[in-house]
Amino acid sequence: KATSMNLMPISENFAEVAMNASATVEGGYSDPFGGNNAYKLNASSTNYSGITPAVTGLLTAGDYYTVSAYMKAGTSTLTKIGVYDNNTNPFWISVDVAWSALGVPSTSASTGASNINYEAIGTDGWYRVSFTGQALATDGNQYFQIHADRNATEKNVLIYGIQLEETVYESTGTELITNGDFSTSDSSANGI
């Protein structure tokens, strides 16, 4: 059986993670599991304003990683989530999440991402946004980033529970196990 471990040293208390471009967070918002532990991530007037906790030294070039966060639409219509390497092009493993007027996410653009998934959590508008990508370079500094508003306006998105896991594929004959979740090996099923 495959196992996984969240590589993020801080995955829920966003008041303790690094911010860039004058982003701010406000705690105490309703989270996807009935608590009040979610944060509103507020962007400044730059398109890269958001959280940016360092993950330097945690990634291995050539290995695959699953990036995920619980997200809920705020006032932003375009949010970026991914892992950034500041030294080597293509720089990103990422997804630009477009938010509909009803708060439903879809993919606007992606770089190096596969198995993109938006799993609705409950009925309150929360989604677990996840995807897999290969770390192509680890020679710079790496950061897990969520940019609240890619349109460079002062808007926001709600976030909770970020994860970065090494993705281990293990064949069991007819099934693949990815981070402990079972999916059929049929390429048309469940994003495999």
> What is the chain-wise order of helices and strands?
EEEEEEEEEEEEEEE
Mean pLDDT: 86
Class derived from helix and strand content:
mainly beta
The neighbouring-strand order within the major sheet is: 1-4-11-6-7-8
Q: Estimate percent helicity.
A: under 10%
Given as residue ranges, the uncertain stretches (5+ residues, pLDDT < 50) are: 180-192
- N- and C-termini, Cα separation: 18 Å
For the secondary structure, the number of strands is: 15
The coarse overall form would be globular
Total of helices: 0
SSE topology sketch:
Elements: E1 19-20, E2 24-29, E3 38-42, E4 50-51, E5 64-73, E6 78-85, E7 92-99, E8 105-111, E9 113-121, E10 126-134, E11 142-147, E12 156-166, E13 169-171, E14 175-178, E15 181-184
Antiparallel strand pairs: 1-4, 2-3, 3-12, 4-11, 5-10, 5-12, 6-7, 6-11, 7-8, 9-10, 13-14, 14-15
